[in-house]
Design brief:
Layout (H helix, E strand, L loop, with lengths): L1 E7 L2 H8 L9 E3 L6 E9 L5 H12 L5 E11 L7 E8 L1 H17 L13 E6 L5 H13 L5 E5 L1 E8 L6 E9 L4
Antiparallel strand pairs: 1-3, 1-8, 2-6, 4-5, 4-7, 5-6, 8-9
Length: about 190
């Protein structure tokens, strides 16, 4: 199964985040509100029998981090210059706790011999991807809109992380939380 570990968003926060990008922006493949999350680690294809190990890695990391407030306050893009590929929300508060969770998840996955995308964690909330066949003008419009986009702060209390299964289909991915683990009790 295809797995990742993430901070899930409350339904109301996800709905508000989904509404941030103007509907008029061209050439975007938007992430559905119900699929919005902040990825801590992407494992990809993982043998079914390793789900317990993945959950244990998430549980170990969560046990060392107290609940915290996560606030998004700005829109951005990857890459920062040139043709944009990903549109995201950046973190105003809670980044240190997100990085601590990610560090713990990475250590837990490594210690259990699990394979995952081991690039340095750059915490963000992906809102959309620019379609591959976007024209130069469309890509430029997206980049310009992001430079001018002012967003209101969007925050919530993080109390758990989830091990999520991703099933790909022509209609887009479907995410199912297979396990949720609470953060440490303060």
């Amino acid at each position: 199964m295809r797995l990742f570990i993430a901070i899930p968003l409350p339904t109301d926060v996800a709905a508000r985040a989904f509404e941030i990008l103007p509907a008029s922006l061209p050439a975007l493949r938007r992430v559905k509100a119900e699929n919005l999350h902040l990825t801590l680690a992407f494992l990809g294809q993982t043998p079914d029998e390793r789900l317990g190990d993945v959950t244990a890695a998430a549980r170990d990391s969560a046990a060392s981090v107290s609940p915290f407030t996560l606030v998004f306050d700005r829109a951005g893009r990857f890459p920062e210059r040139g043709r944009p590929r990903v549109v995201w929300l950046g973190i105003a508060a809670g980044a240190a706790s997100v990085l601590e969770l990610g560090k713990g998840v990475y250590a837990g996955l490594r210690s259990r011999g699990l394979r995952f995308d081991d690039r340095p964690l750059a915490p963000h909330l992906t809102l959309a991807r620019v379609v591959e066949d976007a024209s130069a003008a469309e890509a430029k419009t997206v980049g310009a809109a992001l430079a001018d986009l002012a967003i209101e702060r969007l925050g919530f209390e993080v109390r758990e992380i989830a091990v999520v299964q991703s099933v790909l289909s022509p209609k887009g991915p479907r995410y199912t939380a297979l396990a949720t683990v609470p953060l440490a009790h303060s």
